[in-house]
Amino acid sequence: MQIGSIKSLTIITLLPLLFQAKAVDFAHEVVPILKKHCAECHTAGKHKGGFTMNTREELMSENDNGFVLEVGNAEKSLITDLITTDDEDLRMPPKGKGLNEKEVQVIAAWINAGAPWEPNFSFAKKTYEPPLSLQRPKLPTPSAKRNHPIDRILDAYLAKQKSSPVTPLDDAAFVRRIHLDVTGLLPTSAVLQAFQKDSSADKREKLISALLANNEDYTGHWLTFWNDLLRNDYAGTGYIDGGRKQISQWLYRSLLENKPYDKFASELIAPASGSEGFAHGIKWRGEVSAGQTVPIQYAQSVGQTFLGINLKCASCHDSFTDRWKLTDSYGLAAAFSNDKIEIARCDKPTGKIAEPYWLFPELGKIDPSQPVPARLAQVAKLTTMPENGRFSRTIVNRLWHRLMGRGIVHPVDSMGTEPWNADLLDYLAGYLVDNKYDIKKTIAHITTSQAYQSHSQVLANDDESKWIYNGPRTKRMTAEQFVDALWQITGTAPAKPDFAPQTTVTRVRASLMKSDLLMRSLGRPNREQIVSSRPNDLTTLEAMDLNNAGVLSALLKKGAEHIRTKNNNIPQAIAEDLFLQALSRKPTTDEWQIIQQSLGENPDITSVQDLIWSILVLPEFQLVR
């Protein structure tokens, strides 16, 4: 296709600057332009010229004229030619004056930045609205060998997909997975060998119960999950002195006691002594945008954490991605604030004062005449009441995601998205409520299913648009799991934790330590924002730090000394000890031949250090399969 001359000399001189990648806000800058100039002809079932752009996948697909976008290169993208040409027969949009210079610049910057897209956003009209009330699905008829309710639901799903249940894990793989998922720790070689020798039919159920009953190890692991989700243990900069209060003691005690989840959430929403840091968020230095004020943070945090609702977009304007309005965010924020709040749209005051408002008025309302503590008690009750199915569905979806590698609703913070199995989601939510919001019991229920105890998928291409459930998904160790495992294997755990819970701690865990360079490169977030899922991909920084980080090298050297002494410096004993601890198996014959050549008859510290490192970088070690 031949494109005519560029609109004007101004555009020509501007183009070199346009094609330099820079930060661009998809929701606030790109979407309005695409809606204004492109949506009429290329969204909501319309695909003029063979081109549609309801979703990013559709935008990136080939159409009648080839590919519209060259991701990362605006200059070579067809769309750039189409929006800048002065040929009236070719220019897009064909009506009106077309894009102005600023709009062209935004589109170019967006393409150069990789054409980022808001998760779950689509220009198509949304047709799915999740039910609010708790549903009780009818369970499918059990088969002879698969009576667990989760397996019955999934067997019916797989039958519709014309797929068979995934093959079960062997004992060694199961023991490693369940230890890492429940306690975040590797199984000892003694535990592994005893389990393999046990011939009882219920040994897996007994192991799950024993691990969940180990309150300290369970708490040390799940503290990471909740620190991320509650934005706790934040040690960054930017907030004023006294403007950030941790909830670590309250959180540790709550997990140790397995506090019922409805009570747990209520004490965060209507804060009790020790838990108020979540509700009060971060008080930043200097002036902040309207979306970062403490009351608005409260609305965002409650919505995201407990209801899977993104109120961040709706804190600036009516959301582009779902039904939430600016007044919804400000209404929930007003329930928290002692002072009247003026609604600001895109940081511009509107002159309207927010009234305390509950997101689901069909469940009840907030009484604006009451003082703040009473209003927050009402918010807590409305959030956690059994009739609010969004509350119970959100947490069981998070647990399923954590244990199975992917949520029933994906992403986990977009609970307005249609689940891939609504019956499974509703069943688990009902199970949680029926069992008095017992998180441990719900974890036990998921992990005792054959679905959990099956081989996991290792995905070469993480294309969510083509994903269909066929068993658990392989997960990466968290930074804390990696460090805990390293300490276990090498005997290099610190003598005492940085955070000292008000209870006896017999084992120092990475979750109790301040984040260091190694943990940060492995993906431990600073927690300025709520983190509901960590990246599952290896980063360049992580690869570099695993190769030559000073923190890791020091631990390996110290660990090599420990391993040599522990095993009397006998090569085979060293190798078997490391493999059993790290991988829950002994070295193969081929592996042993290589190791033997490397260690020699009298291994020195460097050779043992190298062997430990070579095991740590194995995908078999770093993945929870």
Please give a structural write-up.
The protein is an all-alpha fold. The protein has five domains: 9-112, no CATH class; 171-213, no CATH class; 219-384, no CATH class; 389-476, no CATH class; 479-531 and 538-624, no CATH class. 47% of the residues lie in helices and 2% in strands. The chain contains 28 helices and four strands. It has helices at 9-18, 26-37, 39-42, 56-60, 78-84, 101-112, 149-160, 171-182, 189-197, 203-213, 215-230, 248-256, 261-269, 276-280, 294-307, 326-336, 372-384, 389-404, 422-434, 439-447, 479-490, 517-521, 540-548, 550-566, 571-583, 589-599, 605-616, 619-622, and strands at residues 342-345, 348-353, 475-476, 623-624. A two-stranded antiparallel sheet has the order 1-2. A two-stranded antiparallel ribbon has the order 3-4. α7 (149-160) packs antiparallel against α19 (422-434), α15 crosses α16 and α18 (389-404) packs across α19 (422-434).
Distance between the termini: 50 Å
Number of strands: 4
What percent strand?
A: under 5%
Helical element count?
Answer: 28
Task: Give the structural class.
Answer: mainly alpha
Q: What is the domain total for the residues?
A: 5
Major sheet summary line: 2 strands, antiparallel
- Stretches with pLDDT under 50, minimum 5 residues: 1-21
**Shape annotation:** globular
Percent of residues in helices comes to: 40-55%
